[in-house]
Give the backbone structure.
Amino acid sequence: MRYTGLNRQIWNNNIKSVILLTLFPLVILGLVWLFVFLLQPAAGFRIEMANQMFIRSIPWVLIGVFLWFIIAWFSHSAMIQRATDSAPLSRKENKRIYNMVENLCIASGMPMPRVNIINDDSLNAFASGIKTSNFTVALSRGIIDRLNDEELEAVIAHELTHIRNRDVRLLIISIIFVGIFAFITEALVRSVRFSGSSSGRKDGRVVIIALLLAAVGYFLSSVFRFAISRQREYMADAGSATMTKNPLALASALEKISTDAQIEAVRRNDVAQMFIDNPQDKKIRPVSFPFGFLFMTHPPIEKRIALLKQF
């Protein structure tokens, strides 16, 4: 895959960010309207009545989405740090890592991000943050200890490319909104399960409608999120090769990472997809079922390695 250039990629990702910010609320509102419409008596579906109920619900839906987004936006760094069992790494603790990150940042003209260490012997790394003050590159203890300098530099360059291309912000926006659909699904199921309605038939109908619509929203948002995630990995691989002038170093690093990428502390797929390799993708390889690739957050690592060797 040809690297399209930093400025072009940042511009493309800014456009995608705007599309995501617009698309997700529209999908949520569309599903709310369908939910209201389908809950009407089967004998008479009335669009006018559905529209009236929908209009009354719009402010509450938008307020809920806005509050969720604001809370997640400002607390994502702490949540990711807890989910990955990562902690700040000081310069005194590991000058080797700091020198690599600092040298790459100076060479590429970007500010120095925070550096975190993941207390795990497996090999993996990720970048996070939405602005300069909280951009972070996190490296596992295993990847620090088991990669040579060239391979580790290539991995760091991959993560720095994510930051420069604004991939991190785009991914976090998508994760936040997909989380909304997951929350809505659980909330609807719980509200119906513990409701005091005397009509079992009505409750069953509500459950079916709620689950079907929530599943549609979750499916659409997830597929879009996964497609963006796969694309960003190709671009970050190319960016690393350009930054280090050593694509074979990243290819070698990916080969080692693929043998032991499972960070034990990470069991949430939304967090796992931020890593340079998502081991959970191996459970849903395309061979598992015809459209399995749609649910993979990363391209097959073998394909990434092959492209790097042709760079």
